[in-house]
Amino acid sequence: ARRVAWQFALAALLVLVLMFGGGAGAALAAQQTIPGETLYPVKLLSEDIRLGLTSSPRSEIDLLMEFVSTRVGEINRLAELQEVIPVSTTERLESHVELALQAAAGLGDDEIEAALTRIRTHLEAQTQTMAQVGGTAGETMAQVRAMFQAQIRILDEGIGEPQTFRNQVRAGRGGDGQPETSETPAPGQGQGAENTPGGSGDGGPGSQMTPDHTPGPSS
User: How far is CA 133 from CA 14, 128, 129, 141, 219, in A?
Assistant: First the structure.
């Protein structure tokens, strides 16, 4: 099913390339585009296809780090041109990092430390390459650097404590590992209420389950 899905995606990519005119040349030209340019959607679709065809967590991590470099390059270029940096670009960048952490969390203890170190080194390098600019672009880039630094702290902790790192990643993916809420009934509620003085069992408010010794009419 996965293979069929990516075959459809590849077909869609080819249609886009042909629509935007130029076959393989257009596909190559798309790789140099930045957000807002005509062939940029072709660039993003080709990235999604490449990621979908990866065969191992290590390959997935390497490819995602390549995409991180690409997004940082686009952000720097937009800042140089004094263009607005789209929210979708920073969101996609953050998604690359999160997917890389998820892929690393699935590795065994013999591989995870090297993977986390590799991701950390890459994020640190990308943080250094981000231009120092002002205005709205400067605020956006400061947010991206803060995101990188937060992920680097998680990676630093995970390198020494792989299981702690896995738990953090799982919690971020939907609350796995969160403590369950207690369902213990409070006093006066639940199954014991009917036998509690002043409770609300079958006998009504204040009733107690005691035998009735009231004398009846004489025979």
Answer: 38, 13, 12, 8, 104
